[in-house]
Structure formats: structure tokens, C-alpha cells
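Worked Example 4.2. Consider the chain below.
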Amino acid sequence: MKVHVLQHVPFEGVGSIGPWLAMQGATVGYTRFYESSVLPPTTTLDLVIAMGGPMSVNDETSLPWLKSEKQFIREAIRQGLPVVGICLGAQLIASALGARVYAGHHKEIGWFDIEACSPTADCFQLPSRETVFHWHGETFDLPQGAVRLARSAACENQAFQFGPNVIGLQFHLETTRESVDTMVANCRDDLVDGHYVQPEAALRGISDAALARINSLMTQVLSYVVRSRR
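Applying the procedure from the previous section yields the following C-alpha cells:
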């Protein structure tokens, strides 16, 4: 399996996705946009994973590579490739599909519950309720033709599926203790007072069992989108 990761900043890596990729024997390529914006032909790939980042999908003037990245995602979807987007990655998928991305009513930073919606039987089934890691200030409209998979108290569109093998997750299931540490170290200025912004101690205080649950759920999402390509 040939996988391509779209990485936007050094401190938002693949986290728990790394071991899953290794177990698949995947050949993994990266476009690290903070170093180079060169993208491979989508025809050579089996899976695209778009990671998070502090920028907005609307920053095309200051970050012109966003245009080519969205075109790359759009072409991957058009070709039927499995695509998973996480946080900014989900917003990029939504934008590539023509949906609006904009500032949410609340910043959502910390460990908060998501609630599964009731998608059709042929969609990925999230747990009815799960505590997951959030770090975002923007949200998106649901793309036309997409199915909402989850919501939260702070954000109506937390996850969606488009077609059989494209999933966008506003939250971070790939989170590890190391990734929490790097997010806090690099984005500490985001931790302002807010109803859905937790203090640093709470961000770091999650249990090993909770991390294991969300990491397992991340592997389920990945396995689901690539199921037809095995």
C-alpha cells in the first residue's frame, strides 16, 4: 500500500497512525508544506492522509500552496482514493468539496465528548459517545452529498463521510502523550479563557486507557476507508 501524508507543521505528525502504517507494510511518502509543496501524482497512491495545522484553509494569499493541496485532495477524491482528513485536514476536504470553512462559535481545545449521529448503514459507525482530543477554532459546513457522523456541544459538524472511503475528523484520534506535549509547547498561546478550552494540566492528564480507545478508533477509521483496496 502506497500512502501519502500531507503535513503542515513539524509538530503535528501522524501520532498513533505510524504504527498502523508499519503494520500494513505501507510505503509512506510526505509532502511537508513547511519545507516543500511538491505533490505526487494521485494515480500512484492508495491512501491520502491530511494532518492538522494552525493555519486556515482560507489563507491562500499568504500560503499559496493551499490551492494546489485542495486541488490534489479534490483529484484524489474524484479518482476514488481513500482520503482521511484530521482537523485542518477535514477542513481541507470540506473546502475541496466546495463547503464553507469559517470561525466557529467557540474554540474547542481539550478532551471533550463527541456524540455519534445516525448515519446510514453503509457509513462508518462511531461510538455513541467518546471523549476525544480537540484543538481547533474553525469549523465547516457539511459538504453537499456528505453524511454527518458526529457532533459535539461546541461544534455541530465534528465528523463526516463523503462516498464510501472519504472521512473527515475535526478531532484528533491519533493523539499520543508526545503529540499533546508538542501541541502544548507550540500552541500554548491558544489556551485562553473559554468554555471549551481546558488548562494545560487537563490536556496532559488523560488516562492511558482513554488514549488507547481513541487510537484504536483511529485504526478502525483507516481500516474502513482502505477496505476495498486490500
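The chain has a mean pLDDT of 96. Residues 2-229 form a domain with the Rossmann fold fold (CATH 3.40.50.880). Compare this with Example 4.1 before moving on.
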